[in-house]
Amino acid sequence: MSINIKNNSEELKVENGVFIHSSCPSSNSGNGQDLLLNVGSLQKPDLEYLGQLIKDKKQLSAFPNVFSHVEKLLDEEINRVRIAIFQCEFSHEPLQLPEAIGEISTHQEKLYVPIKQYPDYNFVGRILGPRGMTAKQLETETGCKIMVRGKGSMRDKKKEDLNKGKPNWEHLNEDLHVIIQCEDTENRAKIKMSRAIEEVNKLLIPQPEGEDDLKRKQLMELAIINGTFRNGGIMPTTPTTNK
């Protein structure tokens, strides 16, 4: 089956689960260049496929706000594949949530990072992961927002110094910490928050150099994002369910 979508001089064609973007030729132009987006089928997740998806996303960025639905589908497929490959050592048992009772409210917990005991350890990178993907995975699994705040939480240290003392930046005067936030009814939020706190606490335990499987996966994922990965290293092991 083939689907064609045209937008002015742009055309999107879907054939056999593959998105093909091309510029429609006009009387003053030659043949349009094709952009292949291999996101249509549930292909088996592997490093090569993830690299292709990320490359497709970069190519698609040349056409901003043209194919918003394609961008959304591509983001969802990238997220599906990267989670399958780079799942962290979080508990993969789905949360068992009861029926909502009462009003929805905001629940919040603050966990301080042991930066004084381990001043040279990169806790921020460990918690957030490449492009924030480790934190996003944890948010997806727990239903909570995960935010790193406090001194040293910003990548740009000059910007952090400039923002100190300004309204809405008061957290920069505090020690480095993680904010866990959930919007739900109290009976459901309690379960979500408990899982999130448990998993974040795992990330706050430094691992010996060379034995940190999470760091190895994060570095591999970062290399794929930057286009510098060469598939000659160790493939991440398939995660097992923690019980």
In short:
The chain is an alpha+beta fold and 243 residues long. Helix content is 36%, strand content 19%.
CATH superfamily of the domain at 104-211: K Homology domain, type 1
Give a quick account of the main beta sheet: strands, pairing sense, barrel closure: 4 strands, antiparallel
Radius of gyration: 22 Å
Mean pLDDT: 79
Strand order of the largest sheet: 1-2-3-4
Residues in β-strands, percent: 15-25%
Number of helices: 7
Distance between the termini: 44 Å
Helix content: 25-40%
What is the CATH C-level name of the domain at 104-211?
Alpha Beta
How would you spell out the order of helices and strands? EEEEHHEHHEHEHH
Structural class: alpha+beta
At CATH level 2, the architecture of the domain at 104-211 is: 2-Layer Sandwich
Q: Which consecutive residue ranges, at least 5 long each, have pLDDT under 50?
A: 1-10, 14-21, 23-40, 233-243
Molecular shape: globular
Q: Please state the oligomeric state of the protein chains shown.
A: single chain
CATH fold-level assignment of the domain at 104-211: Ribosomal Protein S8, Chain: A, domain 1
Report the count of strand segments.
Answer: 7
Domain K Homology: 105-201
Keywords: Developmental protein, RNA-binding
GO molecular function: mRNA binding; single-stranded RNA binding
Protein name: K Homology domain-containing protein
